Amino acid sequence: MRVLLLVLALLAVLKIWAHETAYRSATEEALVSAYRARAADACARVSLFAASSTGGLAPHTLDWVSSAVPRISVGNPAVRVQLWQIDHELWDARYRQPYLILGDGPAGLSCTYDILAGSAEIYRS
Fold this sequence. Notes:
By secondary structure, the chain is α+β, with helices and mostly antiparallel strands. The protein has helices at residues 2-54, 91-95, and strands at residues 71-74, 98-102, 109-114, 119-124. The protein has 2 helices and 4 strands; from the N terminus they run αβαβββ. It has a 4-stranded antiparallel sheet with strand order 1-2-3-4. The N and C termini lie far apart (55 Å).
């Protein structure tokens, strides 16, 4: 009887895991397809500004649309807010807001697009 109960519990956990994985995958695909063009435009604008102000890479060499596979991230680890600082004005940006990351561009550049704010930042890895 214990073995049967253990098997049923294992099947329930497996079912929940499968549903959660399918939901997260579908959500990520929907967000990427909805915001990839906007993110690429914002990243191109930011890289154009950065290249013109610092004399870096030529703007036409940065192709964010065909860069590596984009991914969704919840929270921006670049924002310096600790987990226990829940009253901090940037806490949501650090731990709750969704970001679309277009990465592995030329010279190791990656672009983080803030979906809620509609802004982008470029980082060199």
